[in-house]
Amino acid sequence: MINNLLKYGVILCLSVFVTSTIADQNTIKNSIERAYPGLKVDTVQPSEVKGLYEVFIGPQLYYVSADGRYLLQGTLRDLKTKKDLTEPKVARARANAIDKVGPEKMVIFKSEKPKHVVSVFTDIDCGYCRKLHSEIDQYLERGISIQYLFFPRAGKDSDSYNKAVSVWCSDDRNKALTAAKQGQTMETKTCDNPVLEHMALSSAFGARGTPMIVFDDGNTWPGYLPADKLAKLLDSRN
């Protein structure tokens, strides 16, 4: 009899908790989307802190109170373990976002002996982007395949943007990208292209400059790294 009551009590408590959690998640989602029309909340789930929920909007992570009134953005750190609880989750979200773009919407230089794949947000007219690409054979030789996404920092309809579109619309994108980064005059071309999608993603990732290197686990490196240093860094992460 007592065991049955305890079992029933546990089930009832779990039911109340689940119902409460779902109610909080709906409240939070509705509150954010009312406050910021046009934003789409992807996921809402409890965080490690009681009464605080994790909210993902694209690859960006926010924390919101259970009543949906208060929102904050920043790093949640466990002072006992000294672990960053935010960045690993954001990194996974970045990796998933890159996967959603897909290789068919990138300009890819593949290593013949691949060990690592990195995604690089690039601006055709950026000096360090050109330096990185001028050493592309060194990256490939070290087993690093590079997936390029476009981030013309001057914005839509700028000269850099138009070059990115022309590269994408070329018959041989790899050859066209190399020529563009060498400063060669390009034939202006237009077609359906993913440049704006790349730019939106770079903004969601918080990119401030180029090149921005994204590792396959979603962690990032803000700037140029020579091939040998990048290879050592990638090897150390495995």
Q: Give the number of DSSP strands.
A: 11
Strand numbers in spatial order across the main sheet: 7-9-8-10-11
- Average pLDDT, rounded to a whole number, is 90
Low-confidence stretches: 1-20
Summarize the amount of helix as a percent range: 40-55%
Which structural class matches the secondary elements? Answer: alpha+beta
Spatial shape = globular
Major beta sheet, specifics?
A: 5 strands, mixed
Order of helices and strands: HEEEEEEHEEHHEHHHEEH
End-to-end span in angstroms?
54 Å
> What portion of the residues fall into strands of 2 or more residues?
15-25%
Commentary on this structure:
With 238 residues, the protein is of the alpha+beta class. Helices cover 43% and strands 19% of the residues. The protein contains 8 helices and 11 strands. It has helices spanning 2-35, 87-101, 127-134, 136-141, 159-168, 173-181, 195-204, 227-237; strands at residues 43-46, 52-57, 60-65, 71-72, 77-78, 83-84, 107-109, 116-122, 144-150, 212-214, 220-222. A 5-stranded mixed sheet has the order 7-9-8-10-11, sandwiched between helices. A 4-stranded antiparallel sheet has the order 1-2-3-4. Helix 5 runs antiparallel to helix 6. The radius of gyration is 23 Å and the shape is globular. The N and C termini lie far apart (54 Å). Residues 1-20 have low confidence and may be disordered.
